[in-house]
Amino acid sequence: MGHFLNAEQHRILQAMDIPVWVARGAEENSADPDQNIPDQNIDTLWDRLEREVAGCTRCQLHQTRTQTVFGVGNQTAQWMILGEAPGADEDRQGEPFVGRAGLLLNEMLRAVGLARSDVYIANILKCRPPGNRDPGAGEVAACADYLTRQIELIRPRLILAVGRIAAQNLLDEDQPVGKLRGIVHEFGSAKIPVVVTYHPAYLLRSPAQKRKAWSDLCLARRVADS
Ligand code: SF4
Q: Do residues 144 and 4 lie in contact, with contact meaning Cβ atoms separated by under 8 Å?
């Protein structure tokens, strides 16, 4: 079961002097869907979170970003789509999953009866790593509580983790996607179901894997509907 921030990441954050946001009095980030936030407070919490991210300087990536990429979509979505980090297009446009990979993601969602506007899309990191390198452990740790707070506000029925970086960091795993897919994982104390699939950018390079991605989406559909 993933808790997003593991002990090593907590250690890194402490070393970087970064406070860890703790969900509503919990000892760990709970993302508990049973804890209802009054409606009038939700907009305020979203606004505050988005402003915090826009001005964030917690890690070095703030120095090279064009803008932060907060997340986009339906804030009451049943499905949350989680990717890795902004690429060049995302950094330029301020929205996750744009460009060719974004179009393929839209197609994948449409295949299971969802429009892009039905889901909420976010990344592990809100700023682009230069040259699209993998996110560093310190960067993931620094950015983690923004995502945890998004998950807690949305309270999705399902998280679809697309690609290795998203899946490994969310689930605190080091296995490749091929080993993590096909299983229903859980996130946080609320045990939000997590299904792992390939990143659409990878599917563009390896179209033979689309069949497996389709099977992952069908699994996600069953889980979200159950
Ligand atoms: Fe802040 Fe996250 Fe951007 Fe780092 S990647 S500067 S932690 S918003």
A: yes
Write down the pTM of the prediction: 0.86
Q: What is the rounded average pLDDT of the residues 205-219?
A: 96
Beta carbon of 58 within 6 Å of any ligand 1 atom = yes
How would you class 97 by CB atoms within 10 Å of its CB: exposed for 0-12, middle for 13-18, buried for 19 or more? buried
The alpha carbon of 76 and the centre of ligand 1 are apart by a number of angstroms equal to 24
> How far from chain centre, in Å, is Cα 74?
14
pLDDT digits (tens, 9 = 90+) for 38-54: 666 888 999 999 999 99
Distances from the Cα of 178 to the Cα of 8, 54, 119, 166, 181, angstroms: 25, 34, 24, 14, 6
Instruction: Decide: 56 in ligand 1 pocket, CB within 6 A.
Output: yes
Q: Which residues contact 76 (CB under 8 A, 6 or more apart)?
A: 154
**Strand runs labelled E in 101-220:** 120-123, 158-162, 185-187, 192-197
Name the burial class of residue 28, with classes exposed (0-12), middle (13-18) and buried (19+) by CB atoms within 10 angstroms of its CB: middle
Contact present, 49 and 146 (Cβ < 8 Å): yes
Structure tokens at 11: 């250690």
4 burial level (CB within 10 Å; 0-12, 13-18, 19+): buried
Structure-block tokens of residue 122: 């976010």
The residue whose C-alpha atom lies closest to atom 5 belonging to ligand 1 is: 127
Q: Which amino acid is at 181?
A: R
> Would you tell me the crossing angle of helices 137-154 and 7-15 to the nearest 10 degrees?
110
